[in-house]
Write a structure and sequence with these properties.
Length: 535
Amino acid sequence: MMQNDILSLQETAENTWQAKYLGNYGTYNIKIKINKGKIETYSCSCPSDYSPCKHIGMIKNVIDNRIVKNKENPKEAAISIEGLLQNVPHKELVNFIVSHAKYNPEFTNKLLLEFLHKATGKQENNYRQALRNSLKDIDFDYDDLYDYDGNSIEIDVLDEWFTKARDYIFQKRFDEAIAICKACIEEYADWMEDVEDEIIECIDPVYMEKPFELLTEIASNPSINSNELFQYCMAEIGKPKYERADMDDSFNDLLAELAHTEKEFDEFIKLQDKLLQSISDKSSSVAQGIIERKIAFYRKNKQPETAWQLVLENLQIKSFRKQVVQQKIAEGKFPEAKKLIADYYTTSQNDTNYYHREWDALALSIAEKEHDIPVIRKIAFAFIENYFEKEHYRIYKSSFKPGEWEKEVQKIIAHYEINGKNFSSSVADVLAEEHDASGLKKYIEKHLTIERIEQYHKHFAADYPNESLDLFRRVINQYAERNIGRNHYEYLARLFKMIGSIEGGKEMAKAMIAQYKIQYKSRRAMVEVLGNVKL
């Protein structure tokens, strides 16, 4: 990786850097934000699975070197540029900027963002027109798109606009920041109408979310006329272009934050009701999202009773029904809770076992409170029927008397074994849970592997140290004989450290390591790794 492969590197805003790097798989776009000399945020479009990738550290080093050089010669660059510009006639400078901007979209974008507020005409229109032109210049690298599925597409132009809006917020120039956010919302939605679906799926969702986040932040300032923003959202929401850009929810969420007067409350709720009426399936995720938005709105505005009434009126939505069941259980109204659960079972035959288990857990908690032994056994066993699970195994066990349980354990083991020739982790887990050291040792010995002895030895090694060490010796010898490579040798080292905690284990480990150094002296990596084992 050579610094010569850095195609460009520039500070786009204070402590924010952007680079283009020529890598093995094309040109990578790299962004780094530095805070007090340390990386705060970063991104790289390379296909590496590592985060951060190697390019981030390399670019950071180049940035650090550049900063050091600038500090060593603080006046050199500034004086040369300032001195030069002071001697350039105004007309020539203007002609140069116009000519340079004509063939450099990135420079044009920076120029517009810096000085567009000085242009004549309505600011919002100026920003929209400027961003519209910049978005037209965006070109996608389809090869990168298809070769590296999973990497979100970043849009540098919009990133710069968001940064400028953030600067204006910091300067409390809220009108400029709002104008930029509106332009980003409207022009991005218009631009997306001509973008192919497969591209849209890969674009980072931050570009449809960030303007609304910034507007929400701006609206929290008491000096802002939030009603103007509220009316803006009411006028824009519902336009077809925002549905394709997936911005409708963002508009609604922003409206919920902006509503402060009684009239705005009514407008917001009427809008949500209108959206809900247009949905035929009131149990759908879309309907749920609208109702949840109303509930959050009522709670935010200190109307918890109204919010809870919405939950009660929409029991067709599983999460709402679950809230009501939990509330009934907390109030000790078990018959009502059980009826709600029974009704769910009746209407949810197509649901997956996962959702049924969630409701089974609620029914089980009621049975425990009512000390209903038959129901406890039925539901708890359903949880452990296919595989051992400690929590519900213990609940199941608690429903038996000691004399009854001894017989039941054998039934459970027989149930898990089915075919006694195959190993069952559930059988081993039951034996471990029951502290049956002898039974577990025999079971592991019958189905001996290095992974099984490693996992279960702690449950019987204290009672049977010699037998346990013998089992370790057998599997370790087999493993050492069959596997080569540093990773395998490091695994052997961990095993030797592990058996060191067993009575007599340190002596055996030392002897085996000494033997291996002779037996496998040609395996230099093994000799090195085992030589570093400290027992």
